[in-house]
Amino acid sequence: MEMRIQQMARRQQNMETGDPGYGILPACAPLANPYVPYQQDNPATYPAKNGVVRGTLFPGLDLPFMGMTNDVPLDDTPLHELQALCFALTELGLYLDTHKDDREAFELFQSYARLYNEGKAVYEQQYGPLTMEAAAHGETYGWMSDPWPWEYEANQREA
Amino acid sequence: MFVYEKKLQYPVKIARPNPKLASIIISQYGGPDGELGASLRYLSQRFSMPYAEQKGLLTDIGTEELGHLEIVGAIVHQLTKNLTPEQQRADGFAAYFVDHTQGVYPQFASGTPWTAATMQVKGDPITDLTEDLAAEQKARSTYDNILRLSDDPDVNDVIKFLREREIVHFQRFGEAIQKLRERLNEKNVYYLNPAIDR
Fold first, then answer.
1. Is the whole-model pTM more than 0.80?
2. Percent of chain B scored above 70 by pLDDT?
3. Which residues of B touch A32 (CB under 8 A)?
4. How far apart are CA B165 and CA B182, in angstroms?
5. ∠ Cα B149 A53 A76 (to 5°)
6. Residue B42 near residue B170, CB atoms below 8 Å
């Protein structure tokens, strides 16, 4: 019992110091309902290139198995840069799906979208179209060219 | 509709073939808690969702799961490419090889073909979203088990990424249930089924 009280006191402290791994739960709630603590607005984020290898942009949700983590960012290639930016958009998009009024998060989403569009142009210039529609911008129809994404060669292109 | 983007969500670059490991990882392609079931579950459940928050989230997570299906397929493909005759005969892979050669087929690690019996679309929003919480945990446990069984760093790098996504999705589904609850009778969320009753 005493341990529980200590744990609760520590949790209270974590909330007050803004520990990103803690969220909001109602103090009193109807029975027989599933609850997951709500992630607080404007949460801390990793930069995209660190977040993508961790599998999340949010330190508060970064819960690895037996300490197995990817700590080294991907090599600096146009593909990896694009994957990091696209990942940041996916992650922030899912966050905004349940936090649509978080202004700071939306602004971060907007700035990653701008960087993503720039990165996409650089990548397509070098490696060809990412979508069938983008193939129309080339001199010839370059959509079909190898390698395709599941092939080793597509994932080991140099900077 | 869907538009294909010609890149993986996360890079897959596996240096050494390992057919035995492929025959385990195939379970996250077409197994009971795999990515095919995940994507079809969410992309099917969304049709009966009455409110925008849940329609949107199921669409977005279902779409991400299609990307994960592609990643798991890429792992299996690269682990089984350019096999020697000895590797084709390897313990734990010969049974797969005789049926599918080096193709990627949606099946359990135990060989059962993918089946929609592993997922549900109940047509009741709180029921479906509660299933989704469990589905994310089952997928996370499977990735934990793969990390226990695999010692290939190129594979594990990707598995760690996919495993963490399950945790993030669990969080979002939990929040989506809270959003749903705000729309329902506060004292009794089970008073009616908001998908069909008004």
1. yes
2. 100
3. 190
4. 26
5. 125
6. no
CB A30 within 8 A of CB B189: yes
Neighboring chain A residues of B73 at a CB cutoff of 8 Å: 150
> Is B179 an 8 Å CB contact of chain A?
yes
Q: What is the pLDDT of residues B90-136, one digit of tens each?
A: 888 999 999 999 999 999 999 999 999 999 999 999 999 999 999 99
**Cα B165 from Cα B113, distance rounded (Å):** 25
Q: Which two tokens stand for residue B119?
A: 């997922």
The model's pLDDT over A95-108, given as tens digits with 9 standing for 90+, comes to 999 999 999 999 99
The number of folded domains in chain A is: 1
What average pLDDT does range A126-150 have in this prediction?
Answer: 96
CB B162 within 8 A of CB B68: yes
Q: Chain A contact for B58, CB < 8 A?
A: no
| CB < 8 Å to A56, chain B | 164-165, 167-168
Is residue A1 assigned to a domain? no
Domain that holds residue A127: 33-158
A93–chain B Cβ distance below 8 A for any pair:
yes
pLDDT of amino acid B186: 86
The rounded distance, in Å, linking the Cα atoms of B176 and A127 is 39
What are A73's two structure tokens? 């960012």
Do the domain assignments include residue A59?
Answer: yes
A28 within some domain: no
Contact A83, B193 (CB under 8 A): no
- The span from the CA of B76 to the CA of B88, in Å, is 14
Whether residue A64 is contained in a domain is answered as yes
Closest CA–CA distance from residue A8 to any residue of chain B (Å): 22
